[in-house]
Amino acid sequence: MQSSLTPFRVAVIGGGPAGLMAAQTLAQGGAQVDVYDAMPSVGRKFLLAGRGGMNITHAEPYADFVTRYGKGAAPLRPMLDVFGPQDVRDWVHGLGVDTFVGTSGRVFPTDMKAAPLLRAWLHRLRESGVRFHMRHRWLGWRDDALVLDTPDGELLVRADAVVLALGGGSWARLGSDGAWVPLLAARGVGVAPLAPANCGFDVDWSEHFSSRHAGEPLTTVAIVSTGADGREFRKQGQFVVTQGGVEGSLIYALSAALRDQITANGYTTIYLDLLPDLSSQRVADEVARPRGARSMASHLQSRLGIKGVKAGLLRECLGKQQYADEDQLAQAIKRLPVRLLWPRPIDEAISSAGGVRWDALEGTMLKSAPGVFVAGEMVDWEAPTGGYLLTACLAGGQAAGRDVLAWLKRG
Ligand SMILES: Cc1cc2nc3c(=O)[nH]c(=O)nc-3n(C[C@H](O)[C@H](O)[C@H](O)COP(=O)(O)OP(=O)(O)OC[C@H]3O[C@@H](n4cnc5c(N)ncnc54)[C@H](O)[C@@H]3O)c2cc1C
Questions:
Q1: Is 142 helix (H, G, I), strand (E, B) or coil?
Q2: In whole angstroms, what is the distance from residue 183 CA to residue 199 CA?
Q3: Nearest to 340 by CA among 231, 234, 240, 244
Q4: 341-354, pLDDT tens digit by residue?
Q5: Whether residue 274 has its Cβ less than 6 Å from ligand 1
Q6: Which of 35, 155, 206, 258 is the most exposed place for a label (fewest CB within 10 A)?
Q7: How far is the CA of 45 from the centre of ligand 1 (A)?
Q8: For residue 391, which atom of ligand 1 is closest to its CA?
Q9: Which domains does the chain have, with CATH numbers?
Q10: Separation of alpha carbons 305 and 125, rounded Å
Q11: What are the residues whose beta carbons fall under 8 Å from the beta carbon of 211, sequence distance 6 or more?
Q12: Model confidence pLDDT, tens digit, residues 52-95
């Protein structure tokens, strides 16, 4: 047994939000914590998340909140029950940063930035004795020791327990490169392949269309598609046409289902409702109105406000005959098929799906490596944007910290 004068020594590898929250929990519990990270500084993806407005959590009712994690909701639930959206906000406030709820229910720090929050957090962690070791890349185990590649050569570290919080597989240049997957697989840990989540998709646009419309947003459209259960779903929002495909909030929100359909079928087709606020009948009536000598394009613009990228899409996705047929054109405005070929590469995605399988875990501890705990995006769950990712990373880091303390105390 350790005495209270010789605290347990815990190594946290990975200084993203999950690892830092594990470090915080462990330090509060009296452990001596060393954080190792391969990069020159911690929290790089956390800082990037703050660039476009740091969406830290979501204010919708908790019963709805937990459903956003899909299949991961059940195993994540006990962690979120202890450290949920309100706890995230209280924790941010405790670091001296205020939050506000945006119109969509998303919660942001008042200044929308991640840097002041991270600065205050690191200051608090250092004050509580957490030590940081940058440019220390974990390469695996030798016997029971952790092998770290450091600027001064190889370092072997022995700790009473280890928390791995190595992130997913997107934006490798910020540190989370998924290089841990074979290291854990070699240790007998089941890992679901990492896959892009909250990602764009490739579409085989013609040169004519993409050269004119790449970068243009489609505001207020709806997408109809088919879920894994075979049922159609419909979601309204906006997205952007890119040089070679589509991206943006509406696409990200549906990306898990779209990705899974492509994996199963080789491609998927989404159906765009270009005028979701108008009924099919109204659209048909307007298209059928006499247009005199006017072209169909200017008829659609004056009767229905269809112009720019929406007009371009109709031209791109319909044959000449369909475009000239009023019935078919009206139907297409409400249900325009666009074929998605494959997701954009994982490195471009906002997050990744896959990771350490839940059945490889007992709580947050690896069954095949007692004393090694995992947290954050490297675990097999996924969620849409909206603050759900960071909330689960923080909750998972907190749970791993608590599990380590309980395991060490058990002896
Ligand atoms: C552009 C963008 C915007 C985002 N915006 C939001 C948002 O607004 N809201 C939200 O909820 N989420 C957002 N996210 C997602 C969120 O940032 C991530 O889900 C979160 O950072 C994952 O936390 P993590 O601690 O699990 O891993 P990471 O933050 O990826 O941290 C993992 C750490 O492990 C280190 N590491 C990896 N391998 C090793 C190794 N072998 N040895 C040592 N260290 C290693 C890395 O250097 C890194 O520091 C965004 C992501 C992106 C890319």
A1: strand
A2: 26
A3: 244
A4: 999 999 999 999 99
A5: no
A6: 206
A7: 4
A8: 11
A9: 9-196+352-410 (3.50.50.60), 201-343 (no CATH)
A10: 55
A11: none
A12: 889 999 999 999 999 999 899 999 999 999 999 999 999 999 99
